[in-house]
Description:
The protein has helices at 19-26, 40-54, 66-73, 105-111, 119-129, 149-163, 179-188, and strands spanning 2-7, 31-34, 86-90, 93-102, 132-140, 168-174, 191-195. It is α+β, with helices and mostly antiparallel strands. A hairpin with a 2-residue loop joins β3 and β4. α1 crosses α6 and α4 (105-111) packs antiparallel against α5. It is globular, with a radius of gyration of 18 Å.
Amino acid sequence: MSTFELDLERFDANTLLGPKQRELLAAPELTWRLLRRRGFERYMAETRTLLNQSFAANPLFVPVSEAEFLFQVGEMMWIVDERLSPIVYAPDGPVAVGVCIPDLNRFIRATGSRLRWTTPLLFLWHRLRRRRAIMIFGAVHPDWQNRGLAGAMLYRGIAALQQAKYRSVGVTWIADVNPASLKQMERLGARRLHRLHLFRKELGAVL
């Protein structure tokens, strides 16, 4: 598995647009919205459903339960930048989502992972100076995969980051068994940051 980083100041988001992507962006049957604090739980329920549907064929993926998902993202509403995460709806429901949040590493380092009287001030300082974001994941309903929707959604997300004056975006773990996402990183010219190897060994009977 690998993580990546994209330099937004040098990237032209228009290179993501081909005929399929332009058609989908203008398609009257698709509605484009953004992840917001208002209605956050509903958005998260739709996001979890899309995540489980989109990654179902990935051999490393285990479906996420409602309780697990809310435990991981329940407090995300306090840090979400409402300009960054597109959600796409077809007439029968949500079909794609891209979850992107500001990078909190500098804030966590500044606080020492401790809640002190200075923490609220440091958080406000971070909000004013945030220039790096993290793309947590993108998910497309199986019926809409390989139709250009992932590229159209990525264009909307990157264009929003650039308009909001972010300078770079990190992309979380992409497995080697996900060649489509790896190919997308290659087309973007994203730089590989980290590499993780997973191993498995069968255990024999204990004598």
